[in-house]
Amino acid sequence: MIRLVFRDLLANIPIWLGALVVTAAAGAAVSVAAGLVTSGFGLEFVYAAGLATLASIATILTTVSIVTVLGSVTRLTVDLQRRSYALWQLVGVSSARVTWIVRAQLTVVAVLGSTLGTLIASPFLPGILRFGLSDSSGLQSIQPQTRPESQLVVIVLVSVIVVLGSLKASRRAGGVRAIEVLRNADGDVTRMGIARWILLAITVALSLVLTWSAGNNSEGASGQLLLIGPLFTAVAVCAIPLIAPPLLRTWTKVIPDRTSTSWFLARNAAAFQVSRSTATISALVVTIALPGSFYAAFSTNGNFVRSVTGESTGTLGPGSFLILLGGPLLVSLAGAAATVLMATRTREQEAALVQSAGGGRGLVLLRATWEALILVGTAALISAAVQVVTGVGMAVSLSRISPTLPDFGLGPGVTATAVCALVITAASAIPVASALRRPVREVLAAE
Q1: Exposure of 386 in the CB half-sphere (CA atoms within 13 A)
Q2: Position 353 pLDDT exceeds 70
Q3: Is the pLDDT of residue 421 over 90?
Q4: Are residues 198 and 178 both part of a single domain?
Q5: Is the separation of the CB atoms in 235 and 202 below 8 Å?
Q6: pLDDT tens readout for residues 395-412
Q7: Which of 134, 163, 188 lies at the terminal end of a domain, its last residue?
Q8: What does the pLDDT look like over 262-319, one tens digit per residue?
Q9: CA distance 121 to 158
Q10: Do 357 and 330 reside in the same domain of the chain?
Q11: How far apart (Å, rounded) are the C-alpha atoms in residues 75 and 298?
């Protein structure tokens, strides 16, 4: 069994690379929070408490991002290997053993990834912490400290989060039915399970309660500002299987299929591979909606304070942005790119099929580019809705005290969308361009 665990990992490195990248990003992100805590050792209580508060908020947001993105990545990992799990069962490996093999593989990847991310981040931590604290009143003069034991804690913490967050995906691996998957290797259509419906209801309720409570204070929202945007983002991510597939099919119909052959192929590929598409869209929504909704809440609250006092409030500076949102965005963007790279083999074979049917190299590359932009466009539409709901919700709540104009955080949202478009297009098109140098027969024959 141990031999199978490691041999399968080595045989499917491109697929498992996605989980490794996400866990490495998670290790680097949580290392920043750990650095904040260790920097408070030996300081006065007020400084240590301030650093611990920043660290706790950053850790919570990063953990939510890890669980959200990791769920999509591990589910896609299992779906891409369903045929292998079916073959294992045909040669006598029980369903329970398949489940435990996948869990062992995820544990190995989690430990390796978190260790790698922590080690890579280590030399950069002092500079990151110094810049991050430059916006925090009273904390600018603190000298950052890192300790080896804190790095060990980060590795253990991230590994535990990864293993616990992937339990459902490992059960999916053991639940594969051999005959069913040998007939259809595309995997199950992503659905809203009971647990996801419950989580959606909880996040909706919390979002509404916190948003409404923002209008209970004549001085404006305070602690709620850090949670309202992330909660509305969590609502969108929970509902991704419900809204992403129909939204993708609907908005892409705006451009007629006859306009471009490459668009027709990309649109149908994205719509057909529902599991693959929703995994990428989930990570992209976190990357775009989180900063957009964060700034929407802060800016709308600033409009309220200005209408009441005539004074401007401080905005979220780049240092605070890096400390609070840098980690979650690193994890989500890495996850989005990873989900695209994990399916490289499938995309290469799809491109080879297009070539064998008479399509040129330009058509193949355009198809890969359009597919990436379709995924980013779908995520951007969902994220725009999150930002609008955040801004309008805050404005309605605060208008109970004084008329308030909403802000939608368009600047950060557009910037995040542009970054995602560049990263995802590169992750989709570059491997396909590399595959075009190989003979079509060789690509189609690859397993």
Answers
A1: 35
A2: yes
A3: yes
A4: no
A5: no
A6: 998 888 888 889 898 989
A7: 188
A8: 888 888 888 877 667 888 899 999 999 999 998 898 888 888 888 877 776 656 778 8
A9: 14
A10: yes
A11: 34
**How many CA atoms lie less than 13 Å away from 12 in the CB half-sphere?**
26
Q: Are residues 141 and 182 in the same domain?
A: yes
Query: Tens of pLDDT along 318-348?
Result: 888 888 888 899 999 999 998 888 877 777 6
Do 226 and 184 belong to one domain? no
Residue 66 near residue 26 (C-beta atoms within 8 A): yes
Tell me what the mean pLDDT of segment 372-383 comes to: 94
Q: What is the pLDDT of residues 61-75, one digit of tens each?
A: 888 888 888 877 888
